[in-house]
Amino acid sequence: MGRKRGRPLDGWLIVDKPLGMTSTQVVGRVRYLFDAAKAGHGGTLDPLATGLLPVAFGRATKTVPYIMDGTKRYHFTLRIGEARDSDDAEGSVTAISDVRPDNAAFETALAAFRGDIMQVPPVFSALKVGGKRSYDMARAGNAPELAARPARIDRFELIARPDADTAVFEVESGKGVYMRALARDIALACGTVGHVAALRRLNVGPFDESHAIPLDKIVASADNAPAPPDLLLPVATALADIPALALTREEADALSFGQAIDLNQLADRMPERADPRSGVVRAMDGARVVGLCRPEGGLLRSVRML
């Protein structure tokens, strides 16, 4: 007998991911607890990481790309003096160093890691090389040479120095930036080696720790019945960072039917800036999000209708 489909739920659940679980395991668990038909997540966290894992149910899965594109904020702890093959505490030691940079050395080195940089991802990552996952190749003893990729770092600060072997950093970054690679590279830039000993994600797009619910609390809420839907945030919450455009009911209906709208009739209502990364605006009919649209060639066209 196949698995029954589950309830048609729509919305976001912001899980405070515990240590030791993969993001996929968390999604599977909450989907089961809510008896939900469809779920996915907005940005992977490693098993060793804790913090915000936004889980999308139903129609919210359509907005996942906009969460993935949003700014993320992390705290990571750098363990100085040991390089690991995984660039985190789970891996095997590959190099050691007696060099312990002072705070000034870190402050000087950080400048080169802000803005648009090139980053070589960790070999223990899910990137595909010739159709195979990099981490599968690395585990088999055949670690690939990964090419550097563009990354955007909005903020990178040293925020604490508990002892000579440990430094804590805060990072705000765009999509596809690896904290393990930042830890590895900032250590190397200071003439030593290091790896991530702890990592926590504090923000993802419009979501922050005030939205987060610990997994064990969700488990408790589903004691004798599926977890209550009132734990979910509305689908549109994910789009709160995208500039809003007020439409009339007629304009909203036209977009819903796949028609484009002349930008001239919207000129006095267009937000000053479209989203800098995607170029989209959030089309609103009163308090209701109609969908996401992009100004193109003098017309407003729908990108994703909700």
UniProtKB/TrEMBL annotation:
Instruction: Say which domain of life the source belongs to.
Output: Bacteria
Instruction: Offer an example of a GO molecular function term for this protein.
Output: RNA binding
Residues forming the catalytic site: D46
Where the record annotates domain Pseudouridine synthase II N-terminal, the positions are: 32-179
Q: Name one GO biological process term.
A: tRNA pseudouridine synthesis
UniProt keywords (A-Z) are: Isomerase, tRNA processing
Q: Which Pfam families match?
A: TruB_C_2, TruB_N
Q: What is its EC number?
A: 5.4.99.25
Report the top EC class in one word: isomerase
- The tRNA pseudouridylate synthase B C-terminal domain extends over 180-239
Q: What Gene3D superfamilies does the record tag this protein with? A: Pseudouridine synthase (3.30.2350.10)
Its recorded reaction(s) are: uridine(55) in tRNA = pseudouridine(55) in tRNA
What family does the entry list? Belongs to the pseudouridine synthase TruB family. Type 1 subfamily.
Q: Which NCBIfam families match?
A: TruB (TIGR00431)
Role of this protein: Responsible for synthesis of pseudouridine from uracil-55 in the psi GC loop of transfer RNAs.
Name of the molecule in the record: tRNA pseudouridine synthase B
Which lineage is the organism of this entry classified under, starting from the top rank? Answer: Bacteria, Pseudomonadati, Pseudomonadota, Alphaproteobacteria, Acetobacterales
UniProt lists the gene as truB
